[in-house]
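lol forgot to send this yesterday, sorry. struct tokens for the thing we talked abt
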């Protein structure tokens, strides 16, 4: 990618990307949300994927 993009200004991933879009701490907030929802919906998610583990 080096030479094709200005890595400091044109390429952002993970925390750098989400904090750029949502402000400082947005990435951490997203991780927390995904964890809480994942725990809450775990039985439903497991039931869905159990159909494919036969």
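and heres what i got for the seq, position by position
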């Amino acid at each position: 990618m080096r030479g094709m993009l200005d890595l400091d200004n044109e390429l952002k991933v993970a925390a750098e990307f989400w904090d750029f879009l949502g402000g400082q701490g947005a990435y951490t907030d997203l991780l927390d949300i995904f964890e809480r929802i994942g725990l809450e919906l775990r039985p439903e998610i497991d039931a869905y994927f159990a159909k494919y583990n036969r």
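The radius of gyration is 17 Å. anyway ping me if u want another try
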